[in-house]
């Protein structure tokens, strides 16, 4: 269990310090500090959070939405490394739903997703 600690400047830090330390390590392990960019490191680490997840949404977008990939939830999931799709198939790992009883939710429950 991680214990929170208070630094001299008064900010309470819990698990965040492990993330900061990892980003620090990645930044300073870069072959050229002149080329190191913490924004790229953060984006790379962020994409690992949902890496390997294939998400289908159910009743999150209006029926007939032509550009669901522009919805903030879709974009956020992809920003965190997920692959989003409109169709259920055996590769889908998660269903994000706004309500129970939809075909996609029932499929997920029956297939253990």
TrEMBL record:
The keyword Transport does not apply. It is an enzyme of class 3 (hydrolase). It catalyses: O-phospho-L-threonyl-[protein] + H2O = L-threonyl-[protein] + phosphate; O-phospho-L-seryl-[protein] + H2O = L-seryl-[protein] + phosphate. Coiled coil: none annotated. Its EC number is 3.1.3.16. InterPro entries: BRCT_dom, BRCT_dom_sf, Fcp1. It is found in: Nucleus. CDD domains: BRCT_CTDP1. GO terms for cellular component: nucleus. GO terms for molecular function: RNA polymerase II CTD heptapeptide repeat phosphatase activity. Keywords: Hydrolase, Nucleus. Residues 46-110 form the BRCT domain. It comes from the Eukaryota. This is protein-serine/threonine phosphatase. It comes from Prunus yedoensis var. nudiflora.
């Amino acid at each position: 269990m991680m214990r929170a600690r208070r630094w001299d400047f008064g900010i309470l830090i819990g698990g965040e310090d492990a993330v900061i330390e990892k980003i620090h390590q990645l930044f300073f392990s870069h072959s050229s500090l002149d080329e190191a960019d913490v924004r790229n490191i953060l984006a790379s680490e962020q994409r690992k959070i949902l890496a390997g997840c294939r998400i289908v949404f159910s009743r999150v977008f209006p029926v007939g939405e032509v550009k669901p990939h522009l919805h903030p939830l879709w974009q956020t999931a992809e920003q965190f490394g997920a692959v989003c799709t409109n169709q259920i198939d055996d590769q889908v790992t998660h269903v994000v739903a706004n309500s129970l009883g939809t075909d996609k939710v029932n499929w997920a429950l029956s297939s253990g997703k």
